[in-house]
Amino acid sequence: MNITVIGTGYVGLVTAAGLAELGHHVIGADIAAEKVATLNAGGMPLWEPGLQEILHRSRHNGLIRFSDDIPAAIRASQVYFIAVGTPEAADGSADLRQVERAIDDIGKHGRSDGVVVVKSTVPPGTGDALEKRLQQKWERSDLQVVSNPEFLRQGNAVADFFHPDRIVVGASSPAACEVMAQIYERLDAPLQTCDRRSAEMIKYASNAFLAMKISYINMVANLCDHLDADVDAVAQGMGSDPRIGSAFLRPGAGYGGSCFPKDTQAFITMGKQIQVPMPLVEAAVAINRNRPRDLLQRLVKEWGGLHRRKLGIWGLTFKPMSDDLREAPSIPFCRLALDAGATVAAYDPLIGRDYPVKDVHLYSDPYQVAALSDAVVLMTEWPEFRQLDWERVMKGRKSLLLLDGRNQFSLEEMKQVTHRWPLTYLSVGRPRLNPGKQPQSTIKH
């Protein structure tokens, strides 16, 4: 099938590459000529494990190309995926201007009986409005609009595309559903068909629920810190109940990225616009917003203040296996630390420059950061931190405080570290480990 994907950001690029790998002829269309040139030359405008390999293979097989000529790209295809951004508007709602621009281009240049597939996250009712726009503004009643929300996780997006839990298709006609079934026929996943508004709602409801689950376990972790309980044991006990499940029961510095912060706020605003309160989602957002401050207060409690203290940060991106800094918890944490009078040194394997907090000094490895710091705060659980040489970290030191903001290290392994070296280990919702004798684990393995 000939498919044009409008928008080559994170979702658009993964979608275009995945569709080409499935054997479709794909054009990735974008108004950014420089990005298009980079992609056609084999470069990558973003970092995602495995994506460059499938793009290279599809390009070699003649199944994918990129173009900044949007009208020509649309005329060459029969299916049009819209994967442009829907950023947060000033009032908290989703800004749909890029989606509307794309639908206008399709209205002007789309082939007869084409199918418009909306991948962008849009509020319920958007598909209806787009279809009406096509009919009234462009007299295009021959084009069908489908909602096909994405559920890609950054750092795992390629696997998520090829092995989805479900494929959601919201459409008003069996013919459109059949086209979508043909597009995804090589994927072994259930195809859930429903009306467009329900499909659009599924995306928001899913993201809001996951955000609430993260904030809930972070709230529980705060309580564990004050009551000397171990959140690992609590989460294990909760997650063993199939009604709850263990996914997203990992306490830490909070969620970030391009989806959860934006989508939860849009969900709240959606409710306000029709006088339907969303107090659970509002609470989740408030808890998450306070996570960087909560972590910083752990250090303030240790020292009485941060003036002239030297802090190190391990990990800056909002999650591992991604170079995305959007809404990363490290950003407000660093700003709060600097405002409190601390100096901040940081290391992240994918951030060598252009960090948005200008007074944070970036270094090329975690050992340099540790050597310059009174305390190190782990903000992103990069796999390489699991391979740290603790003797090198502690070389020449009389003491070091490590605040593990992601609970990346188990208490059992850190007991060995704190027993051997003068390291004090703090984590989220778990017992403090001081150099010397340590408390017994509350979890049986």
TrEMBL record:
<feature type="binding site">
    <location>
        <position position="262"/>
    </location>
    <ligand>
        <name>NAD(+)</name>
    </ligand>
</feature>
<comment type="pathway">
    <text>Nucleotide-sugar biosynthesis; UDP-alpha-D-glucuronate biosynthesis; UDP-alpha-D-glucuronate from UDP-alpha-D-glucose: step 1/1.</text>
</comment>
<dbReference type="Pfam" id="PF03720">
    <property type="entry name" value="UDPG_MGDP_dh_C"/>
</dbReference>
<dbReference type="InterPro" id="IPR014026">
    <property type="entry name" value="UDP-Glc/GDP-Man_DH_dimer"/>
</dbReference>
<dbReference type="InterPro" id="IPR001732">
    <property type="entry name" value="UDP-Glc/GDP-Man_DH_N"/>
</dbReference>
<dbReference type="GO" id="GO:0000271">
    <property type="term" value="P:polysaccharide biosynthetic process"/>
</dbReference>
<feature type="binding site">
    <location>
        <position position="86"/>
    </location>
    <ligand>
        <name>NAD(+)</name>
    </ligand>
</feature>
<feature type="binding site">
    <location>
        <begin position="248"/>
        <end position="252"/>
    </location>
    <ligand>
        <name>substrate</name>
    </ligand>
</feature>
<feature type="binding site">
    <location>
        <position position="256"/>
    </location>
    <ligand>
        <name>substrate</name>
    </ligand>
</feature>
<dbReference type="InterPro" id="IPR036291">
    <property type="entry name" value="NAD(P)-bd_dom_sf"/>
</dbReference>
<feature type="binding site">
    <location>
        <position position="203"/>
    </location>
    <ligand>
        <name>substrate</name>
    </ligand>
</feature>
<protein>
    <recommendedName>
        <fullName>UDP-glucose 6-dehydrogenase</fullName>
        <ecNumber>1.1.1.22</ecNumber>
    </recommendedName>
</protein>
<feature type="binding site">
    <location>
        <position position="326"/>
    </location>
    <ligand>
        <name>NAD(+)</name>
    </ligand>
</feature>
<dbReference type="Pfam" id="PF03721">
    <property type="entry name" value="UDPG_MGDP_dh_N"/>
</dbReference>
<dbReference type="InterPro" id="IPR014027">
    <property type="entry name" value="UDP-Glc/GDP-Man_DH_C"/>
</dbReference>
<dbReference type="InterPro" id="IPR028357">
    <property type="entry name" value="UDPglc_DH_bac"/>
</dbReference>
<feature type="binding site">
    <location>
        <position position="319"/>
    </location>
    <ligand>
        <name>substrate</name>
    </ligand>
</feature>
<keyword id="KW-0520">NAD</keyword>
<feature type="binding site">
    <location>
        <position position="35"/>
    </location>
    <ligand>
        <name>NAD(+)</name>
    </ligand>
</feature>
<dbReference type="GO" id="GO:0006065">
    <property type="term" value="P:UDP-glucuronate biosynthetic process"/>
</dbReference>
<feature type="active site" description="Nucleophile">
    <location>
        <position position="259"/>
    </location>
</feature>
<feature type="domain" description="UDP-glucose/GDP-mannose dehydrogenase C-terminal">
    <location>
        <begin position="312"/>
        <end position="411"/>
    </location>
</feature>
<feature type="binding site">
    <location>
        <position position="121"/>
    </location>
    <ligand>
        <name>NAD(+)</name>
    </ligand>
</feature>
<comment type="similarity">
    <text>Belongs to the UDP-glucose/GDP-mannose dehydrogenase family.</text>
</comment>
<dbReference type="InterPro" id="IPR017476">
    <property type="entry name" value="UDP-Glc/GDP-Man"/>
</dbReference>
<dbReference type="InterPro" id="IPR008927">
    <property type="entry name" value="6-PGluconate_DH-like_C_sf"/>
</dbReference>
<keyword id="KW-0560">Oxidoreductase</keyword>
<dbReference type="Pfam" id="PF00984">
    <property type="entry name" value="UDPG_MGDP_dh"/>
</dbReference>
<dbReference type="GO" id="GO:0051287">
    <property type="term" value="F:NAD binding"/>
</dbReference>
<dbReference type="InterPro" id="IPR036220">
    <property type="entry name" value="UDP-Glc/GDP-Man_DH_C_sf"/>
</dbReference>
<dbReference type="GO" id="GO:0003979">
    <property type="term" value="F:UDP-glucose 6-dehydrogenase activity"/>
</dbReference>
<feature type="binding site">
    <location>
        <position position="30"/>
    </location>
    <ligand>
        <name>NAD(+)</name>
    </ligand>
</feature>
